[in-house]
Structure formats: structure tokens, C-alpha cells
């Protein structure tokens, strides 16, 4: 189950860890035919062995050796079977990597360009240390005054801190060091090299009527500032071109990018769907031949085994068992992944042929679990962490599951289909008069989907689409 949850991007690292920890596990194909023939010959020789009295000796297969033959009543502590194959003289090679300048380092580098004494530079560094990756100062002034007193032994005041913060807010990128969105946008407008009348009007709107602006009550703003539609539109355009997260615009930001590595690859070969498992999910692993032969040698001489040999065979048997378990677990992971994805592909065949979301059938975890004969929790683990690459995009398997909804004709459709229609309606609406939830519910009813306004609002929120008032544009 743990290996099943591991994404493809992390599976290689997990296999490398197992290879490093277990010398009985190796990379590569299974043993060749010659080795197999030698094993068969050796097995046949064992089969025809007889005791002095003519009776057939009792022998176990290599993977079923009775470990009790090698052990006495004393237990072996773990440290006796521990092997350290590394010497202090070994050369350790490390792969170098390049690290860009972080956002905070870039801001600290600008402190030296301002006329600040040593004391004020320490305060400026402390302020920058409290700026997050988006460029906002999230800590209140009083708390920072106390922090400086305790950590730096510097007594300061709110007024001095605000003065130094004003210097930091003049750094690049514009808007950095702001304590909220309103202040961030106003700072950017005031730092414009060539301000216009629209810039001044935009500053007034944000400074005096920020609440009305966020709620898009443009008629109230026009009435209070006594401006025309054209003047308001130009001022709004100025604001919309600002950056609400100045820190994230820096290429040197330390935030790491997440790369999605698909677990499955789907090809459409002239109308025939072909599903493949990502090759990284199918590593070539084998049992070490050296360790297998070592155990075979012990099995021949077990009657004369001394204490050291018994300790050695215990170590070898543990490592071989662990290697076989890991190889079996990897194979079972591959089979489970292909089984679940194959069932999903068959269930949603029409969708995968075209990529049309309206052709998605209602499908829940139980449907797939019943098809493949697995537990629902197992299917859930696959669906929640695995991706498939298709000719029309890369998707999380979870996105193909949806509840059912009945139309006026009694036909069951996927809620994903309804959301797609809802998204298309909002995408093609008149932004000056956006569609309300009531109107969207009426449109869906006209198309045969009997859905209440509350359900439309729920689907709209799941699609991260704001209410009609916030979608309004000038």
C-alpha cells in the first residue's frame, strides 16, 4: 500500500534507497537462460540424491531453507548482522547544484544602496526577514519592536520602524513591503515613472473607496468622485495592470516549481486507445546471483556450520527475503495500477476517444472497485495520487470521478458534464451584464438539467468562479 501511494517522480528515489540498503537486490533483467539451466541441473541432482539407507533426503527449495537448522537457542542481536562497507578513506563524490539568489537576499542587497547607518541597516534586515515570498510584510509593527529589543538588543519606536519601512517599500520590485493589498497597489501607482491623470484617479479610488472597488460597486465610485464612465474605465485599467503579488514576479524566488510526471500514457492510434505504464514504474530488478549461490553453499554444508556461518546465513536470508518482497511489491504495484486505469479507460471510453468532458459518465470509486475486485480504499489511493497523459492534456485520475444527475428525460449524466456547460455559459456571457445564479439555473433547465439555484452556486464555487457582481466589467 505504501508503494502504491508513492508517485512516479519519487519511485526512482525509493528504489535507489532499497538498492543501497539491500546488497541482495540488483538492477537489471532476471538471470539469463544459462543460469536457469544450471539451477535446473542442480535441482535435478538434488532430486536424485539418496541416503545411505536408500531413503530420499528431505530438502527444501532455496527460498524455503529452514533457518532453525543454523540457529541455536541464543538470539542474535541486530548489530551482529549489520555490515558497514564504507571506509573513512573512501572518496565521497557529491553532485554540485546551482542555487539562484533568493527573494530576501535580493532585497538585502539593496540596503547598501541607501543612506542607512549600521543600526538602521539591522532594522531594515529584520523587516525584510518578515516579508513573505509574495512580497508582503505580515507581522505587525508592535511585535517587530519587541522582537528587535529581545533578539538584537535594539530599542526602537513605531515611528522609526515606519520610517525605515518606507525606505524598504521603495525597493524593487514595486509594491514590496506592503502590509495589505491596498497599500501594495497604491505603492506601485506612486512609483510610476510617468504618472497620468488616470494614475492619480486610480490612487484616489484605492485610497478612499477600496471597499467599493473590491465589490465592483462602480456606480457608487462614479457618484462620489463625480467622474465619467470613460475616466473610471481608464483608472480601472491602470489598477488591473498592477501586480498583486510583487514577490512572485522575481525569477530569483526560492519557491520550487512542482513537476507532474504522468504515471500512465494514453495514445489514440486511429481510433484505438492504447494504454501504457510509464517506464519509470517498471524498473528492472533481480535477486543477486552471488547471494543466492552463497545461500546454496550454506545449505550444502549446514551440518558442519559453525557460529560465524550461522550468523552469515541469517544475514543473507534476511536480505534475500527483503529483496524478493520488494520485487514482488513493485510487480503488484504495476498490476494494480494497470488494472485500475484499465477499468477507468473502459468505463470512460467515449471520453478518452474525444476529450469532450460532456461525454464523461457518472463514476464513483465503488464502480471501479467492483470491476477490478479491489477494495475502495485501494482504488482511492490510485485515483488521488496518479496522473495520466492523454492527447488532450495531463489529468489526475480523481478528476474522472463524479456523482450522477438525472435529466428531465430520466437519463443519468455526470455532474462534470453540468459543470462544463456552466463554465461555457459563464465564459460566453456579456461581462457588462453577467449571468446571475438564477439565470444560469434557468439556462440549465432549458437544456434539460433540472437544477436548483443553490446547486448552481455550489458548482460555480467548485469551479472557482465568483458571483455575477464580481464578474462585471466596464
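^ C-alpha cells above, recovered residues below v
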Amino acid at each position: 500500500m505504501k508503494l502504491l501511494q508513492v508517485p512516479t517522480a519519487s519511485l526512482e528515489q525509493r528504489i535507489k534507497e532499497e538498492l543501497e540498503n539491500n546488497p541482495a537486490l540488483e538492477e537489471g533483467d532476471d538471470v539469463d537462460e544459462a543460469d536457469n539451466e544450471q539451477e535446473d541441473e542442480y535441482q535435478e541432482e538434488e532430486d536424485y540424491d539418496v541416503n545411505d539407507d536408500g531413503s530420499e533426503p528431505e530438502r527444501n527449495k532455496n527460498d524455503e531453507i529452514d533457518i532453525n537448522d543454523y540457529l541455536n537457542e541464543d538470539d542474535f542481536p541486530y548489530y551482529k548482522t549489520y555490515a558497514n562497507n564504507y571506509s573513512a578513506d573512501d572518496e565521497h563524490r557529491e553532485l554540485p547544484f546551482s542555487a539562484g539568489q533568493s527573494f530576501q537576499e535580493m532585497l538585502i542587497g539593496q540596503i547598501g544602496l541607501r543612506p542607512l547607518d549600521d543600526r538602521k541597516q539591522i532594522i531594515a534586515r529584520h523587516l525584510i526577514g518578515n516579508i513573505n515570498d509574495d512580497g508582503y510584510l505580515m507581522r505587525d509593527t508592535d511585535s517587530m519592536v519587541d522582537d528587535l529589543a529581545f533578539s538584537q538588543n535594539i530599542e526602537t519606536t513605531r515611528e522609526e520602524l515606519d520610517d525605515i519601512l518606507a525606505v524598504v517599500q521603495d525597493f524593487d520590485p514595486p509594491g514590496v513591503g506592503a502590509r495589505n493589498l491596498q497599500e501594495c497597489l497604491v505603492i506601485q501607482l506612486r512609483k510610476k515613472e510617468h504618472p497620468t491623470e488616470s494614475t492619480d484617479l486610480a490612487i484616489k479610488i484605492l485610497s478612499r473607496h477600496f471597499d467599493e472597488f473590491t465589490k465592483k460597486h462602480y456606480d457608487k465610485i462614479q457618484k462620489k468622485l463625480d467622474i465619467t464612465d470613460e475616466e473610471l474605465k481608464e483608472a480601472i485599467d491602470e489598477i488591473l495592470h498592477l501586480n498583486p503579488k510583487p514577490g512572485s514576479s522575481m525569477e530569483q524566488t526560492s519557491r520550487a516549481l512542482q513537476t507532474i510526471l504522468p504515471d500512465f500514457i494514453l495514445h489514440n492510434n486511429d481510433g484505438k486507445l492504447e494504454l501504457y505504464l510509464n517506464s519509470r514504474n517498471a524498473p528492472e530488478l533481480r535477486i543477486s546471483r552471488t547471494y543466492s549461490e552463497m545461500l546454496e553453499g550454506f545449505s550444502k554444508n549446514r551440518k558442519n556450520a559453525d557460529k560465524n556461518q550461522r550468523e552469515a546465513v541469517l544475514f543473507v536470508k534476511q536480505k534475500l527475503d527483503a529483496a524478493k518482497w520488494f520485487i514482488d511489491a513493485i510487480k503488484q504495484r504495476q498490476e494494480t495500477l494497470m488494472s485500475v486505469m484499465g477499468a477507468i479507460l473502459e468505463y470512460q471510453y467515449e471520453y478518452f476517444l474525444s476529450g469532450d468532458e460532456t461525454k464523461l459518465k457518472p463514476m464513483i470509486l465503488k464502480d471501479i472497485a467492483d470491476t477490478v475486485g479491489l477494495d475502495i480504499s485501494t482504488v482511492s489511493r490510485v485515483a488521488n495520487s496518479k496522473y495520466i497523459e492523454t492527447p488532450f492534456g495531463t489529468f489526475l485520475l480523481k478528476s474522472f470521478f463524479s456523482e450522477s444527475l438525472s435529466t428531465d428525460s430520466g437519463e443519468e449524466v455526470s455532474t462534470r458534464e453540468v459543470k462544463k456547460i456552466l463554465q461555457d455559459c459563464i465564459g460566453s456571457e456579456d461581462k457588462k451584464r453577467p449571468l446571475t445564479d438564477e439565470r444560469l439555473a434557468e439556462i440549465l433547465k432549458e437544456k434539460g438539467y433540472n437544477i436548483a439555484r443553490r446547486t448552481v452556486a455550489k458548482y460555480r464555487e467548485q469551479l472557482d468562479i465568483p458571483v455575477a457582481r464580481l464578474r462585471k466589467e466596464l
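The two ends are 54 Å apart (CA to CA).
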